[in-house]
Design goal:
CATH topology of the largest domain in chain A: Nucleoside Triphosphate Pyrophosphohydrolase
Order of helices and strands of chain A: EEEEEEEHEEEEEHH
Number of helices of chain A: 3
Oligomer: homodimer
CATH architecture of the largest domain in chain A: Alpha-Beta Complex
Largest sheet of chain A: 7 strands, mixed
Structural class of chain A: alpha+beta
CATH superfamily of the largest domain in chain A: Nucleoside Triphosphate Pyrophosphohydrolase
Number of domains of chain A: 2
Number of strands of chain A: 12
Radius of gyration of chain A: 18 Å
């Protein structure tokens, strides 16, 4: 937490495992108190950009309820209760793509909302990704699997074809981290 | 929206201009209905990475309530009622940095949450940024202004010093877009 002090917190809405809303009483460094600061709790998540040993990116073209039309997307999903982020990333890569990877690069763990919290997103680059099983995803959305070159992925990113903030972050970080390693 | 159909929506929590929570009844393409899909509405926002004509990045080091410790950050803020995203980006750059820019590159408008919506973040790169006034921000947080080289910014990004998902997305996209233009 910041040097802002949480004086108290109460639950305004306990919807489900997908959403709790709290209201915090917060004291600022200058002594002011804001007593109705909304705070949102949704499940933490992972996103993974899998890259094969011949430098192809394994991605989806899919729908999501909040997104207009189709979007390109990395692998992703919620952490299960008590699950370590890296384990969740490896589990999702196996479930959604049927893949394992040789080397995992943690690109960062980022808060989704500066003021409301919302969730922590753990972003990964999975190197040496390779098919080891049939995909077995329980996702509600239909997904098309794609295998794109690095140039195609960068073009798509700059062309706004990854339509979610954490997906754009994950792909941008993956491209920069890959080039830094060369 | 996706091919998922919103059958009905009702407000569960009307907190303030900062937060409304709805519950949607949603029909999936295969005919299944989910009648308690939570949907979060918070203000849309802009983030801006300002770069000077000699290729220095104007950034903040600051606190945010949801973030542990200090973070590097681009310019950012909420859209005002009815405001165009580009106008909000230009207003925030002037208020927070006292700067105007010669050229504005729209890096994308991204949803924050794939399932819950949450907000749309409009991300910009502002080229030829220059001081034209004294900063006059009404932000609650204390901010330190920084002027970093492109290499310093990339190092900080890969070192996880931008601790928010949209900030990492904005900086990553800005670096890739800058290089593409050369």
């Amino acid at each position: 937490m910041s040097s802002w002090k949480t004086l108290s917190r109460r639950i305004l809405l306990s919807h489900s495992k997908y959403l709790t809303v709290e209201e915090h009483s917060v004291e600022l460094p200058d002594g002011r108190v804001i007593d109705n600061w909304p705070w949102i709790i949704t499940p933490d998540f992972v996103n993974v950009v899998p890259v094969t040993s011949d430098n192809h990116f394994l991605l989806f073209r899919q729908e999501k309820y909040a997104i207009d039309g189709l979007s390109l997307a990395p692998v992703g999903g919620y952490l299960e209760a008590g699950e370590e982020p890296l384990h969740a990333a490896q589990r999702e890569l196996l479930e959604e793509m049927g893949c394992a990877a040789d080397e995992w690069v943690h690109l960062g763990s980022f808060k989704a909302g500066a003021n409301r919290g919302i969730a922590t997103g753990h972003l990964y680059l999975a190197l040496g990704a390779q098919r080891v099983a049939e995909p077995d995803s329980d996702d509600l959305e239909e997904q098309e699997r794609l295998c794109l070159s690095e140039r195609e992925v960068e073009d798509a990113l700059l062309n706004k074809e990854f339509k979610l903030v954490p997906w754009a972050a994950n792909v941008g970080l993956a491209l920069l981290a890959l080039r830094r390693r060369r």
